[in-house]
Amino acid sequence: MKEIMIATGNKNKTREYREMLEPLGYKVHDLSEIEHVDPEETGTTFAENALIKARSVHDRIKMMTIADDSGLSIRALNGEPGIYSARYLEGHDYDYKNHTIIERLKDKTDRYAWFTCAIALIDHEGKEHVFEGIMEGEIADELRGNNGFGYDPIFIVPQFGKTSAELSPDDKNSVSHRGKATRMLLEYLKGHPEEEE
Ligand code: ITT
After folding, report:
1. Is residue 103 part of a domain?
2. How many domains would you assign to the chain?
3. Active site residues
4. In a domain, 133, yes or no
5. Does the model's pTM come out above 0.90?
6. pLDDT of residue 109
7. CATH code for position 19
8. Tens-place pLDDT, residues 92-139
9. Is 25 a domain residue?
10. What is the pLDDT of residues 181-193, one digit of tens each?
11. Using one digit for the tens of pLDDT, what is the confidence trace for 141-167?
């Protein structure tokens, strides 16, 4: 059995990785199975923060580990919330965060936004790799859909003309930042079978 540790405390991320990796024969673990203290995300890029998270877990367990740092960047807000997506308006729920973003964009014609996902892999020799995917789209003027998580209800995916919260899990994974980065990771692993034991 191929095993992989997803160094995340975000159950929605674990679910999306499970949906993509289990059909390929991976047993997916996450931080709910081990004692763990979240490291401070002191990086200035998604890739740096993903590496910080992956290292903090890989240092303690002997298993192929990946960590994902991801977020939503909005051009009209100079890239906000970006790497601060999880910490944006901390203490408020996503309904409030999403309504606040719509309010901040109410006079803006530029609705362009993109999700980024950087996956850091620490392989069996302790070597580090990063795979990055993006999903481009637009910010909606109202919340729509109940699937997905986080900023999905306000993010319109042009290929579907729907928010990513209106997409089925398979449709979201087929175009999402996390789906793309995961496929790059899997391509790498296929070329390195020694990582798959
Ligand atoms: P871990 O660090 O434990 O993995 P986290 O939720 O703190 O969990 P990040 O620092 O990477 O993770 O922040 C990512 C945030 O970006 C996430 O909480 C959402 O608000 C947003 N986000 C990322 N991917 C998303 C997606 O596919 N759909 C909607 N929002 C997403």
Report:
1. yes
2. 1
3. 69
4. yes
5. yes
6. 97
7. 3.90.950.10
8. 999 999 999 999 999 999 999 999 999 999 988 889 999 999 999 999
9. yes
10. 999 999 998 888 7
11. 999 999 999 999 999 999 999 999 999
**Cβ-based neighbour number of residue 45 at 10 Å:** 15
Expressed as residue numbers, the domain containing 131 is 2-191
Share of the chain above pLDDT 90, in %: 84
**Would the CB of 149 count as within 6 Å of ligand 1?**
yes
Q: Confirm whether 197 is domain-assigned.
A: no
Q: Is 138 in the pocket of ligand 1 (CB under 6 A)?
A: no
DSSP secondary structure string for all residues of the chain: -EEEEE--S-HHHHHHHHHHHGGGTEEEEEGGGS---PPP---SSHHHHHHHHHHHHHTT-SS-EEEEEEEEEEGGGTT-BGGGTTTTTTTS-HHHHHHHHHHHTTT-S--EEEEEEEEEEE-TTS-EEEEEEEEEEEE-SS---SSS-TTGGGEEETTTTEETTSS-HHHHHHHSHHHHHHHHHHHHHHH-GGGG-
Q: Assess contact for 133 and 117: CB atoms under 8 A.
A: yes
For residue 192, the Cα-to-chain-centroid distance in whole angstroms is 24
Backbone dihedral angles phi then psi of residue 154, each to the nearest 5 degrees: -110, 5
Which ligand 1 atom is nearest residue 31's CA?
3
Site to probe by mutation for ligand 1, drawn from 10, 87, 95, 180 as the one with most ligand atoms within 8 Å of Cβ, is 10
Give the model's pLDDT for residue 197.
Answer: 57
- Residue 191 dihedral angles phi and psi, to the nearest 5°: -80, -5
How many whole angstroms from its chain centre is CA 10? 9
